[in-house]
Amino acid sequence: MNGLVWARRRRTAARFWSQYRQNRAGVFGLVVLALFVLTALLAPVLTADNALSVTRPPGSPLQGPSADFLLGTDRSGRSMIDLIIWGSRVSLTVGFWATFISIAFGTLFGILAGHFGGWGSSLLMRVTDWFLVMPSLVLGVALAAVLGRSLTTIIVAIGVTSWPTTARLVRAQTLAVEARPYIERARALGGGHLHVMSNHVLPNVMPIVLAQTTLMVGSAILTESTFAFLGLGDPTTASWGATIQAARDVGAVSSRMWWYILPPGIAIVLVVLAFTLVGRAIEGVLNPKLRER
Amino acid sequence: MADSALPTAPVPQLAQSVRDRSGVRRLRYYGEKLGGSLVSLFAVILTSFFLFRIIPGDPVRTMTHGRPVSIEQQEQLRRDFGLDKSLAEQFWTYLTGVLRFDLGESFQYNRPVTDLIGDRIWPTVLLVGTSVIVSAALGLWLGVRGAWNHGSLGDRVNTGVALTLWSVPSFWLGLILIVIFASGLGWFPTSGMESTGVEGWERIPDVAHHMVLPLVTLVAVVYAQYLMIMRSSLLDEMGSDYIVTARAKGLRDVIVRRRHAVPNALLPTVTLIFVNLGFVVFGAVLVETIFSWPGLGQLFYSGLSVPDLPLVQGLFILFSAAVILMNLVADLLYPVLDPRVRP
Predict the structure, then answer these.
(1) What are the structural domains of chain A?
(2) What b/e sequence results for B124-153 when a residue is b if at least 16 CB atoms lie within 10 Å of its CB, and e otherwise?
(3) Which residues of B touch A216 (CB under 8 A)?
(4) Cβ contacts of A273 on chain B, cutoff 8 Å
(5) Domains of chain B
(6) pTM above 0.90, yes or no
(7) Complex prediction ipTM
């Protein structure tokens, strides 16, 4: 029995991958993502010990690109390349955790609202609507400003303000799944609420959640850079957004120090684009109607 | 003769009752939308109280953190904010204040928040309004073109550009534009809304000149979404039977597109434009900060770093209320735009 289940799952995964592979943009996104994840994991190996040190920086401040520092140095004399490498850690960490909070809440509330119905469900959806109509980024920024500067604050602010979209999506999917006859069969055989939700609804909702997750990590990373740029992040972490803010502070814009502004922005664009492309490719595999587009 | 008179009598009555019922339905539709907006507005006011009074614990300590403020001054501030009263009393003062458009006094400017908003609102309305109109026009036009020739090179390029711009942080794009076109080529001013000493009608081209770069930045980040939604909703319509029928009738391509497909695909996109206003407002915060545009976004930014809680709170309520109001307007307009939604 167990072997059969696993064989079926392997077959499904193989089919998924063979369809995914046909989407060239999706494969490109996956490669870019793998590179960034690898960079983030290997950051301590790729850079010297004093790479992030402000007191013992490897070079002199605000130098243009040279043989020693291919992308120049920042205001403390740290190599821009090293800053980008360490920044990938911050971005991916915030992206994953914020998305985790958002998806966990969204999926939980979505399934509960879809499964139980009644006034509890309408109340839950009403609350979701309140959140949807509020400008979530403004709310997030205000929340971060009130909570004080730290990476955790940013993660919480993004997570708490972005779950309603997922909740709506999951609720719709839950309603669609629960209308199918096999749910009725499960109930007739004595399956309780918990059994139906965790064994039947959840597995069917997961694919759409997966696509949503990928898209959301991208937008969470974009939001993190924005919050860091607005000065709401931890001042001591070298996030990409914070680096751009530092560049603006030292007047890199008027003195045209392009090597200070350009690289962190390009890194943000690449990561966010990669997540978006992968998310769209997954959506395409799950929903063949979208694939022709 | 008597037979023929019989059936005619009830007909006007029936028509009358149908009209009555549709009138009631319409009233109910508008009432529901209005009620929903009021509930949302109340939720915003409630959230805001929770966010700026309850979460910080002691708002005065949050605001004066790391500043040379004596104990006596802090006590004075607590009294000014009414923090010595009970929570219920505080909420009542706050609620009645908001309803009378009294948003308290800014901590860093020492002026009523409402006055500050009054000074700064028009530049933001100008920038946000123009950018919404331009990005909606651009996004819809490119989206229609893309869907109609989908799969073509132009469509693929357009979608690629849109997806890339969607991934670009707006503040970074703004900085790059300043580096290239303002401090580099010197075509546009680096910041502000007006040059000093320009009077009368001359001000219009001057403001327009200052607005080019902020506008381009804002449009670049916003239009992509409109394009993608318009494109996919038109693609949905293109598979429909009535489009095939219209083509089979021998209608020209332009007519099929303009009269049949686009009107039906428009509604989801229009909905999105209004729902997304919050996103545009946030974009304005960043763009105004980068370009020193003297609007509400810049004011919001200046309140964040303190944090100037009354100011941030007032602007949060204002931004949310604006988005809710615009969505209400959209809800009331849909029946005019689309007969299928007509109650």
Answers:
(1) 17-44+73-286 (1.10.3720.10)
(2) bebbbebbbebbbebbbebbbbbbbebeee
(3) none
(4) 163-164, 167
(5) 28-57+103-341 (1.10.3720.10)
(6) no
(7) 0.83
